[in-house]
Design a protein that fits this description.
It holds the Pfam family ADH_zinc_N. GO terms for molecular function: oxidoreductase activity, acting on the CH-CH group of donors, NAD or NADP as acceptor. By secondary structure, this protein is α/β, with parallel strands linked by helices. The chain has 9 helices and 15 strands. It has 2 domains: 151 residues, Medium-chain alcohol dehydrogenases, catalytic domain (Quinone Oxidoreductase, Chain A, domain 1, Alpha-Beta Complex), CATH 3.90.180; 149 residues, Rossmann fold (3-Layer(aba) Sandwich), CATH 3.40.50.720. Helix content is 25%, strand content 25%. The two termini are 15 Å apart. It binds NADPH dihydro-nicotinamide-adenine-dinucleotide phosphate.
């Protein structure tokens, strides 16, 4: 099988030189193991901090010269476990490769049927949990709230826009460029801001939210987080999900509105989707219901072939993806 390895740690933006595609012969399975032919694997922004050494992240850094990992979906092609038979659809964490060998208990059984493989790396996987628990639990968003979400055309953001509308909130989304803004409007957002258009972001946010914000779902950090603190209402809740705008930079961050955390009694809370693993079935039931009723649209930016892995990953930082970025490996 072939797998992408990290051969050097990126300085700033990652480049092709940081990666190598390596081939290793498949060993015979041990008792309790399965072999999976991956159909898709996920590329995610959090993988960038994992490429740094000793990064104070929530997941161990990638080892150099070892196959990289991440979420993947595929079919069992060989098994020495009675948990799975050949042909079963599973998800697991050995992405960035075409075939994965793992212990059966490290794979999650997925239902057969009409749902596409892609959906288990998106709305019915970790991305769905991030949007659902981030919005409803971490930010305690409720009907009638004014909610601002950044990177609203991306995987997490596009779900947040839709589920916030389904629960009766007013939604403001930000994205880069006219095409993405039109996409976010099509998801049902009440106001959309092109953060790449000229002028201070805070002015644009204030114009879109004349009554202030009750909730900010932060995917990017930096200027948009600062602006949200600037115009937030008293007791507003901030779910700090990600800070993609800062992952490739070591530059110190300045906030001009930080004092507002005190004056407005802002509740700012970071979270990781896995914090909510014990409640995964609640999320799946609700998201699954909305998907089955056609109330949630999914959009994928799919890169073809294992070879395209790094390119797919780079696209996250240049805004090359709309909806969930995935690599199609086969099947
Ligand atoms: P996305 O699909 O949203 O892809 C990233 C998007 O971020 C790009 O498409 C781009 O959109 C935008 N972007 C890139 N660089 C910048 C920048 N400098 N400033 C503003 N926007 C930028 O990725 P995900 O949905 O997977 O992840 C979104 C965020 O959520 C990330 O910060 C990620 O780390 C975080 N996350 C956190 C999780 C958790 O458990 N806490 C779980 C999953 C994700 P545009 O073209 O609009 O700029």
């Amino acid at each position: 099988s072939r797998a992408w390895t990290l051969v050097s740690r990126p300085k700033g933006s990652p480049t092709m030189e940081n990666f190598a595609l390596r081939e290793t012969p498949d060993q015979p399975l041990n008792d309790g193991e399965i072999r999976v032919a991956n159909s898709f694997f996920s590329v995610d922004p959090y993988m960038r901090p994992r490429m740094d050494e000793g990064e104070d992240s929530y997941i161990a850094p990638f080892a150099l010269n070892a196959p990289m990992t991440g979420a993947a979906v595929g079919r069992v092609v060989e098994t020495r476990s009675d948990r799975f038979k050949v042909g079963d659809r599973v998800s697991h964490f050995l992405g960035w490769r075409d075939r994965a060998t793992l212990r059966a208990e490290d794979a999650l059984s997925l239902p057969d049927g009409e749902l596409k493989d892609e959906s288990f790396l998106d709305v019915l996987g970790a991305i769905g949990m991030t949007a659902y628990f981030g919005l409803f639990d971490v930010a305690e968003a409720k009907p009638g709230d004014v909610v601002f979400v950044s990177a609203a055309a991306g995987a997490v953001g596009s779900l947040v826009v839709q589920i916030a509308k389904l629960r009766g909130m007013t939604v403001i989304g930000s994205a880069g460029g006219t095409e993405k803004c039109d996409f976010v409007r099509g998801l049902g957002a009440d106001h959309v801001i092109d953060y790449k258009s000229p002028g201070p972001f805070e002015d644009k946010l204030r114009a879109a939210a004349p009554d202030g914000l009750d909730v900010y779902f932060d995917n990017v950090g930096g200027e948009q987080l600062d602006a949200a603190m600037g115009i937030a209402n008293r007791d507003a809740r901030f779910a700090i999900c990600g800070m993609i705008g800062m992952y490739n930079s070591d530059a110190p961050i300045g906030f001009s509105n930080l004092f507002r955390v005190i004056s407005k009694r802002l509740q700012i809370r970071g979270f990781i989707n896995s914090d909510f693993m014990a409640r995964r079935s609640e999320c799946l039931a609700q998201m699954g219901y909305w998907v089955s009723k056609g109330l949630i649209q999914s959009r994928y930016t799919t890169f073809e072939g294992l070879e395209s892995g790094p390119e797919a990953f780079f696209s996250l930082f240049s805004g090359g993806n709309t909806g969930k970025a995935l690599v199609h490996v086969g099947g």
